[in-house]
Amino acid sequence: IPKNQELMHNPKYEELFAPEYGPENPFQTQQMRAHKNILSGYVEKAHISEFQFENQRRTFTSYGYAVDPST
């Protein structure tokens, strides 16, 4: 089923989420072929304290820096 068309019937789950058929694009890189759930990549769920998020957002807005979460 093409992604930009309106469905005129109620397809079964197997039809709607079946793998796409057709030739692969030989010019796509491995990164371009990776599974994405948004245009720029893959977003994972994160568990963040609302207080800590607001604290860092306000610090960044006021002072222009925030804590690096990777350290």
Automatic annotation (TrEMBL):
Could you mention a single GO BP entry for this protein? mRNA splicing, via spliceosome
Query: A Gene Ontology CC term for this entry?
Result: catalytic step 2 spliceosome
One MF term in the entry's GO annotations: mRNA binding
Database matches in PANTHER family: PRE-MRNA-PROCESSING FACTOR 17
Descriptive protein name: Pre-mRNA-processing factor 17-like
